[in-house]
Amino acid sequence: MTTALPAPFDDPVPLAGPGLSGAATPRLLSRRQKAAIVVRLLLAEGAKISLATLPEELQAELARQISTMRFVDRVTLKAVIDEFVAEIEDVGLSFPTGMEGALTMLDGTISAATAARIRRASGVTILGDPWEVIAGLDPDRLLPVLEEESTEVAAVLLSKLKVSTAAALLGRLPGPRARRVAYAVSLTGSIAPEVVERIGRALAEQLDAQPPKAFADGPVERVGAILNFAPGATRDEVLEGLDAEDAAFAEEVRKAIFTFANIPDRIDPRDIPKITREVDQAVLITALAGATGDLAPAAEFILAAMSKRMAEQLREEMDNLGNVKPKEAEAAMNDVVGAIRALEAAGEILLIAGDEE
């Protein structure tokens, strides 16, 4: 159980305690001393106390106060605890401390854009461990930090992430940059803890200040997804226009596009049975029968990956179907592509990278 301390007691308050002769005599305890007594008792009872959100100076003062105290008699302890319990019982409702506490409480209730705007306007800083905040972010948001910040900062960031996440991010960096950052990790052993915390706080506030994105996917993925299901003539015309405007962007879009013609290059033959089970057989036959010219290798690839009996049966159905109208063939092939994309999104299959040998 985590226990949160209430507001400080009034100071000073006379408490009864035994004097040198053993008789009860009034004593004065500061609110810091009372807090130290309560914390000491709770810790002795095994309670987990949430004090990390307190300002650092108050945490330090509490530690200092505990270090100066020695013994407290039972009468004084009982008086402090009685006052502590009475304080808790009088609390009807408690609110979080500060704007960051309020925003944390309202997380999921107000929009992320509103929360970010409030933080910027109020100058709110991240409370608690900033590295916990950073570790919970999408790795895609961390990649620009590794690309743009100094190698020392990038090395600290990698060192504070899970090994799997750090390895995935390192693999997305260009070779020379990845080598420099990896070498810088070897030099982080002598960095002082307070420096690491300051770096984490600065990065957390920097990442928190980034405006939320309107789209989950980048422009390359969005254009590629649109062109995936566009008519072939439209797709070719758009790509030619993109080549004239921005050849590099056009090349990235080409890598993101997956069409029926890409099946032999980007699909593992062992995944073909899984794909064909997701497509209505009549649609599959139409797609295979309509795959002529440059698309014929894709149809042959699919048939070759099936059992011999199934492939022969489909070839008979294709012969019986005869000529297929181009629009019907394209619609059927788009259905096959849609099934492949759905299986990929569900993690059932993996597409081979477009530039992979």
List the helices and strands and how they pair.
Layout: E1 2-3, E2 13-18, E3 24-29, H1 31-44, E4 48-49, H2 56-68, H3 74-90, H4 98-105, H5 112-122, H6 130-135, H7 139-148, H8 151-160, H9 163-171, H10 175-185, H11 193-208, H12 219-228, H13 232-245, H14 247-256, H15 263-266, H16 272-277, H17 281-290, H18 296-304, H19 308-321, H20 326-345
Parallel strand pairs: 1-4
Antiparallel strand pairs: 2-3
Q: What's the quick description here?
A:
Pfam families: FliG_C, FliG_M, FliG_N. It contains 20 helices and 4 strands. It has 357 residues and is mostly helical.
Could you please describe the fold and organization of this structure?
This protein is mainly alpha-helical. It folds into five domains: 2-90, no CATH class; 97-123, no CATH class; 125-208, Annexin V, domain 1 (Orthogonal Bundle), CATH 1.10.220; 215-255; 258-357, Orthogonal Bundle (Annexin V, domain 1). It is 62% helix and 4% strand. The protein has 20 helices and four strands. The chain has helices at 31-44, 56-68, 74-90, 98-105, 112-122, 130-135, 139-148, 151-160, 163-171, 175-185, 193-208, 219-228, 232-245, 247-256, 263-266, 272-277, 281-290, 296-304, 308-321, 326-345, and strands at residues 2-3, 13-18, 24-29, 48-49. The protein has a two-stranded parallel ribbon with strand order 1-4. Strands 2-3 form a two-stranded antiparallel sheet. A hairpin with a 5-residue loop joins strand 2 and strand 3. The longest helix is centred in the last third of the chain and has 20 residues, at 326-345. The chain is elongated, with a radius of gyration of 33 Å. Mean pLDDT is 80; it is low at 1-26. InterPro entries: Flg_Motor_Flig (IPR000090), Flg_Motor_Flig_C (IPR023087), FliG_a-hlx (IPR011002), FliG_M (IPR032779), FliG_N (IPR028263). Keywords: Bacterial flagellum, Cell membrane, Cell projection, Chemotaxis, Cilium, Flagellar rotation, Flagellum, Membrane. It is found in: Bacterial flagellum basal body; Cell membrane.
